[in-house]
């Protein structure tokens, strides 16, 4: 067992820090700061510009907080000005509410700037498909920030499944359980308001908010596409206009059955994203609240637990995402940093007209984002039609 990574298992260095801009994420926002932290921790980005809020005063104040060189109060103006500068931003992060993603992404892509967009990619399937087309036409990078699949142990899980260690996959179960919506909304949590507003959120709430993470995780680990789903939406917490809970029966390629369960009203659960995959030879289980461990059980054999660190059964694709030796915990911050590392490598290569070695990177793409939007839409369709089966495979 080794305490350090070998050269083959390290990501290649980039030649300089890339210039990064942000839309959203200023004072009072939930996730923008986390993006900025991931970018800093990756050591491959420098935050230089931003339109950090829809409120001009907060945008200006937040730009000062973040020590940005150029602060804007309008993302359109930011896209135009940055594109015209010789040292303008090389990518933009979009961490605004869901229904704004499409127009903001479009504004930057049309100016030739690569995009890193939060999930869900959009609120409507047609908009997601338009971004897929725009990405294809421009050849720019569009990454979607599903950070959980940048945990080393999720990469380990994926490689075990793809290598056939589980045998034929026979069932897939994912869940994402929280409890913050059990009680009436905390007035300090501004995002709670738009998350339950059908005018802004679209046709689903918790399914959009955390269901998309579970959906992506299942696809990422198994490599299988979900083809059908059958959903029931419920309000299990304090009364609210949209679902805080969804029970989804799922079916993947090859007829593989499964379940996807999300709730924000299960007391005692914080961010309980978990996956269990069972094949005819073995099964695996991963829990994002204990992200350093991956349970792997061969049928009729003693239990194996892979522990995050160098060597001892870790595959290269997972080791690349590891910095600290075993015993010094790595967690979600490191997963965000890994995501920003992969975005930086992809974007620098594109800008230099170089290709990235096959299999080196595995960040969520615009197609992954669009698949998530289709999944949410299919769940809403299914629920509204009386929980009937609905096609949820996106034809791209
Ligand atoms: N990847 C993850 O793990 C994760 C976690 C939480 C939230 N999210 C996603 O991130 C997004 C933001 O969520 P949040 O909870 O941080 O929301 P929030 O309401 O807390 O913050 C949104 C921010 O966007 C700003 N904004 C809105 N419109 C803008 C505009 N036109 N120009 C500039 N800024 C604008 C707001 O002023 C605010 O700063 C959502 O899409 C959400 O689904 C992702």
Automatic annotation (TrEMBL):
It holds the Pfam family GFO_IDH_MocA_C3. Gene3D superfamilies: Dihydrodipicolinate Reductase, domain 2 (3.30.360.10), NAD(P)-binding Rossmann-like Domain (3.40.50.720). Residues 154-284 form the GFO/IDH/MocA-like oxidoreductase domain. Residues 19-146 form the Gfo/Idh/MocA-like oxidoreductase N-terminal domain. This is Gfo/Idh/MocA family oxidoreductase.
């Amino acid at each position: 067992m080794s305490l350090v990574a070998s050269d083959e298992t390290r990501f290649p260095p980039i030649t300089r820090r890339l210039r990064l801009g942000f839309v959203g994420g200023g004072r009072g926002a939930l996730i923008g700061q986390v993006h900025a932290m991931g970018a800093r921790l990756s050591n491959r980005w420098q935050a230089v510009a931003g339109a950090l809020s829809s409120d001009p005063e907060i945008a200006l104040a937040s730009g000062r907080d973040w020590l940005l060189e150029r602060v804007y109060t309008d993302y359109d103006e930011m896209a135009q000005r940055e594109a015209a500068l010789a040292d303008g931003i090389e990518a933009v992060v979009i961490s605004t509410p869901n229904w704004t993603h499409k127009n903001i992404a479009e504004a930057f892509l049309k100016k030739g700037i690569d995009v890193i967009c939060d999930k869900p990619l959009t609120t409507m399937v047609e908009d997601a498909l338009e971004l897929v087309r725009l990405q294809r036409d421009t050849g720019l990078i569009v990454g979607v920030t599903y950070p959980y699949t940048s945990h080393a142990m999720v990469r380990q899980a994926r490689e075990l499944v793809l290598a056939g260690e589980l045998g034929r996959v026979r069932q897939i179960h994912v869940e994402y359980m929280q409890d913050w919506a059990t009680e009436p909304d905390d007035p300090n949590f501004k995002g709670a308001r738009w998350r339950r507003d059908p005018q802004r959120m679209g046709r689903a709430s918790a399914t959009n908010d955390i269901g998309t993470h579970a959906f992506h995780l299942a696809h990422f680990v198994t490599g299988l596409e979900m083809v059908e789903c059958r959903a029931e939406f419920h309000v299990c917490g304090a009364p609210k206009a949209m679902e805080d809970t969804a029970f989804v029966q799922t079916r993947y390629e090859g007829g593989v059955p499964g379940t996807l369960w999300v709730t924000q009203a299960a007391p005692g659960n914080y961010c309980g994203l978990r996956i269990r995959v069972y094949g005819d030879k073995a099964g695996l289980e991963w829990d994002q609240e204990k992200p350093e461990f991956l349970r792997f059980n061969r049928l009729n054999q003693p239990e194996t637990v892979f522990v995050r660190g160098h060597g001892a059964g870790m595959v290269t694709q997972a080791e690349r995402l590891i910095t600290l030796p075993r015993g010094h915990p790595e967690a979600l911050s490191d997963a965000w940093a890994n995501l920003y590392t992969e975005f930086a490598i992809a974007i620098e290569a594109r800008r230099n007209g170089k290709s990235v070695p096959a299999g080196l990177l595995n960040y969520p793409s615009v197609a992954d984002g669009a698949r998530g939007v289709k999944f949410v839409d299919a769940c809403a369709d299914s629920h509204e039609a009386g929980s009937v089966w609905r096609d949820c495979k996106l034809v791209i």
